[in-house]
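This part of the workshop introduces the protein records we will be handling. A record pairs a protein's sequence with a compact description of its fold. Comparing a sequence with its tokens is the quickest way to learn the format. To make this concrete, we reproduce a full record directly below:
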Amino acid sequence: MIQFQCDYNEGCAQEILDLLIKTNMEQHVGYGEDAHCEKARQLIRQACESPEADVHFLVGGTQANATVISSVLRPHQGVIAASTGHIAVHETGAIEHGGHKVLALQACNGKITASQIKDCLIAHQQEDGPEHMVQPGMVYISYPTEYGTLYSREELEEISRISHDSQIPLFIDGARLGYGLTSHACDLTLPQLAHLADVFYIGGTKQGALFGEAVVIQQPGLKKDFRYFIKQGGGMLAKGRLLGIQFEALMTNNLYFRLARHANDMAALIREAFQQQGFEEAVPSPTNQLFYILPNDDLKRLEQKFILSPWGHPDAEHTIVRFCTSWATKPENVQALISAIKH
């Protein structure tokens, strides 16, 4: 069976594996204070054009989201997010488990707008006794979104402006950041995104690493004691160099973006095949996640050769299916899927 259900089926990029083997018997201090983590931090700061940024390495996305959000919010505060946002849907209530409410706004193709955020903030202020309600204390968005869609630079600038005018931080979940930044539809750069966010992370788990996310803290007020939150949340890896080595490799010779571009190129071939056959796109995604509406008979036929991700049923005869490429997707597997789509 060929798998197109997610972008973390394979192990890691060969460059990462080579560097892990090469450094395997080196002796280093633990907990992310080793030379490899420091080199990775410097490479990330350079890529973001943020020499003063704090960079911390965590194992996974849910851990990164929960740690960042818990470090920022006061006990009476919640986080504004899209109704389809990862923290609202696919993290088993991790944010609520940490004592904070997700203030979900209705999403359109995975996105929320600056005006929605502004209305949410105004509505809270106009409550009869706002202290009886959860106070919005942060804005969370994903880039790309959980539906593979992208915020434009203008949209991000507006969201950033509303957040900063309201004195609440903007947090960007970058689990698939590279796939967004290398999309043909992207109109901003990593440094531009980095300077619009107060805190964001560069995803590794879904983009060529064995595991790991690099949290980048821009706002000085959010930096204090962050390592305490990492430790308290069980996120401080004793062999922290395993994270640093991976990001050292990813951020060298443009590997991170080369891997991401490959996934988008493979997705583009699949997208073209679906379009040629007249299948309806459920969400107009320009990245490595594709969502198409398939007759149930066609889905059953494809499932004989491919592992896919059903994402809902618009009616009894059709299913929305996600097709996800990755940094490691083989061209021959894409061609096999294209052949099946056409027949």
